[in-house]
Amino acid sequence: MALGSNVGDRAAHLAHARQRLAALPETRLAGASRVEETAPLGPVAQGPYLNQMVALETTLTPRALLAACHAIELERGRERRERWGPRTLDLDLVRFGQRTVHEPGLTIPHPELPRRDFWLREIAELDTPAVAHG
Length: 134
Known about the structure:
Blueprint: E1 2-5, H1 10-22, E2 27-32, E3 36-38, E4 49-58, H2 62-75, E5 90-92, E6 101-103, E7 106-108, H3 117-126
Antiparallel strand pairs: 1-4, 1-5, 2-4, 3-4, 6-7
């Protein structure tokens, strides 16, 4: 899961997401990369993001996990107004084990994965044993 925020208390939004993801039914937070600040992507002028990648172990389906993520975003005031716009909290399903999913509104692996260097760094960090950043 990729976590991102560039509106309000960015670190608090990420902390809330980690806590809520770990509390989902039959789900465990298995690891978290370090938090890094990145420049925004896309054409909309906005402030920098805090980003982090977390690994979850879950029995939820990808669709159920996505629905839970949207609910967590809403808890932090996320409004889906503008593509590539600023957000209090953005949760993206980037990978789901080795599964590939192509459904309306859900593609795994995330189509932007190869173009987001920070995601690749964060995943590499998660794939390294003994990662447990907060």
